[in-house]
């Protein structure tokens, strides 16, 4: 029996305002609040609110047989809480159904996994705490920014205790293999890998409303038939896409909402089920190992990281940002830590791309050119770096900072251990008290 693992990404960055060279040293607020509020509210109205309603109605209609997974970046969650809290309420209702799984990712939707393991771990933990506090679920499956994955990243994800990870079914990694199976990491065998079926996912994400496409119009009946026609032993179809496909990337008039509403009906008629990532890990066994020495992503035909780090502009900004990471982690300033989080978002680097993506429309950018995006970001980084070095001057070497950080981390671990011991002691005393009462 075949199963569909349907996953949606929700992310919005904190967009930066136009920041000139003359602002450096004087203006320490970097964000375009008007654009952030306006864009989030418009997307929520067109996409997130009606899409959440559709998902809830579909789950109820099919009595729990329709299932779906989400990952929502920390930057998106923060904006939704302020600008569109009804979307958060919608996700809370979905969480109560038991048919929706929330995944972990980097809090800032950052590229930290490519350069800073300490920062990467901190963000993943912070995001997991945020998800648990909002939706009552502790994430068990991980989805990295832009589905970026490598053997090195797998080791960290495995160490953090996740059972599985989502990534792209990249052709140059799979070779003759199919993405329609569950795999495991070659270097961290306990970690299971769910691979995106790029053809089926992109048929919905990019080609659904394309009048010139030979398969237009795409109907739920036709789509399920394609899945049924895959080889019989290929049991898993991973459909990973942006949640904005519903209502924003494809507006309602295209029939995208009707497509998703009808999908479970035709799936049931053809004995095709729906599963969350954790369901897949509980029911299927990996058929083989996957080795990924160089990072892959879900971007373009190459499925690599060049959309964010492919040119000298992006690489210079990336270096300038992360060379101060140790100093940022030392600070007690909430404002600096918040700016550090928001400035890591991958979108800022994406706007500097000079690459034309091969699969899908050109990305929307608030800048007239990649060079404008670079100049704006570098001006902000210059000011931010000055603020960080004002707290921890350049004459303090990284070795000294590392020693201080180790001390702080050891103290934090000791405090956490003592708090756990205290909780256990209280629970034991409470249990003993209950026993005496009996």
Shape: globular
Helix/strand order: EHEHHEHEHEHEEHHEHEHEHHHHHHH
- For the record, the CATH class of the largest domain is Alpha Beta
Beta-strand level of the residues, as a percent range?
Answer: 5-15%
Question: Low-confidence parts, pLDDT < 50 over ≥5 residues?
Answer: 357-362
Assign the structural class, choosing from mainly alpha, mainly beta, alpha/beta, alpha+beta, or little secondary structure: alpha/beta
Describe the protein in words.
- Helix 5 links the parallel strand 4 (141-143) and strand 5.
- By secondary structure, the protein is of the alpha/beta class.
- It folds into three domains: 3-290, 7-stranded beta/alpha barrel (Alpha-Beta Barrel); 306-391; 397-438.
- The model is unreliable at 357-362 (pLDDT under 50).
- Strands 1, 2, 3, 8 and 9 form a five-stranded parallel β-sheet that branches.
- It is built from 17 helices and ten strands.
- It has helices spanning 33-61, 74-83, 85-96, 117-135, 151-159, 171-174, 198-205, 220-228, 256-269, 277-283, 306-309, 312-322, 325-330, 334-343, 347-350, 370-391, 398-437; strands at 3-10, 68-72, 100-102, 141-143, 164-168, 182-185, 192-196, 236-242, 273-275, 289-290.
- The protein is globular, with a radius of gyration of 23 Å.
- Helix 1 (33-61) packs parallel to helix 9.
- The longest helix is centred in the C-terminal third of the chain and has 40 residues, at 398-437.
């Amino acid at each position: 029996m075949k199963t569909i693992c349907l996953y949606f990404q929700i992310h919005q960055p904190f967009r930066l305002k136009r920041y000139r060279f003359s602002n450096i040293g004087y203006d320490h607020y970097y964000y375009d609040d008007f654009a952030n509020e306006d864009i989030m509210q418009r997307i929520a109205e067109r996409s997130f609110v009606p899409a959440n309603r559709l998902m809830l109605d579909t789950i109820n209609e099919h009595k729990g047989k329709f299932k779906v997974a989400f990952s929502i970046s920390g930057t998106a969650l923060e904006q939704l809480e302020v600008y569109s809290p009804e979307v958060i309420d919608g996700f809370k209702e979905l969480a109560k159904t038991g048919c929706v799984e929330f995944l972990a990712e980097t809090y800032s939707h950052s590229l930290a996994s490519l350069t800073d393991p300490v920062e990467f771990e901190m963000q993943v933990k912070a995001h997991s705490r945020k998800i648990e506090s909002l939706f009552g679920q502790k994430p068990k499956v991980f989805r990295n920014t832009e589905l970026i994955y490598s053997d090195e990243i797998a080791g960290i994800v495995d160490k953090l205790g996740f059972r599985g990870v989502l990534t792209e079914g990249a052709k140059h990694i799979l070779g003759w293999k199919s993405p329609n199976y569950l795999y495991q990491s070659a270097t961290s065998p306990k970690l299971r890998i769910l691979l995106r079926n790029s053809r089926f996912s992109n048929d919905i994400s990019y080609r659904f409303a394309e009048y010139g496409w030979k398969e237009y119009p795409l109907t739920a009946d036709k789509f399920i038939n394609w899945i049924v026609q895959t080889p019989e032993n290929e049991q898993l179809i991973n459909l990973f896409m942006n949640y904005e496909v519903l209502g924003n990337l494809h507006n309602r008039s295209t029939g995208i909402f009707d497509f998703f509403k009808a999908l479970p009906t035709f799936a049931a008629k053809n004995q095709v089920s729906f599963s969350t990532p954790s369901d897949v890990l509980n029911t299927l066994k990996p058929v083989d190992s996957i080795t990924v020495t160089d990072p892959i992503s879900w971007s373009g035909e190459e499925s690599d990281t060049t959309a964010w780090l492919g040119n000298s502009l992006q690489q210079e900004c990336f270096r300038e940002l992360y060379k101060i990471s140790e100093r940022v982690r030392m600070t007690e300033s909430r404002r600096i830590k918040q700016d550090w989080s928001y400035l890591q978002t991958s979108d800022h680097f994406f706007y500097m791309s000079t690459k034309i993506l091969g699969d899908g429309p050109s990305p929307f950018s608030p800048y007239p050119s990649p060079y404008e995006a670079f100049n704006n970001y570098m001006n902000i980084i210059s000011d931010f770096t000055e603020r960080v070095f004002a707290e921890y001057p350049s004459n303090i070497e990284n070795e000294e900072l590392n020693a201080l950080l180790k001390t702080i981390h050891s103290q934090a671990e000791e405090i956490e251990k003592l708090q756990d011991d205290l909780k256990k002691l209280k629970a034991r005393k409470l249990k003993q008290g209950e026993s005496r009462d009996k």
